[in-house]
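The records we work with from here on pair a chain with its fold. A complete example follows; check for yourself that the lines match position by position.
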Amino acid sequence: MDIKLTADNILEKEFKKSMKGYNIDEVDQFLDAIREDYDAFTAKIAALEEENARLKQEVATPSRKTVATPSPISTNNTNFDILKRLSNLEKHVFGSKLYE
């Protein structure tokens, strides 16, 4: 994409005057509004390009964060605890009828 205009080009643009031409003040005001938008777009593009570069760098750099995965020993202990609690709950709710 080739950018043909800059904010300064817009500001410095001169138009020829003619008898039935446009109102010079209106044209100047419109060009000023275009220049302000152009400056805003240029700043926004620069900010987005900077953020894009930062995010690409972040993706390219391996993360040092480690995900905690439970070890088989702790999982087995947890499962044993759950089964023990269930057994105790069954005994409490159903009493000796469960084991007859």
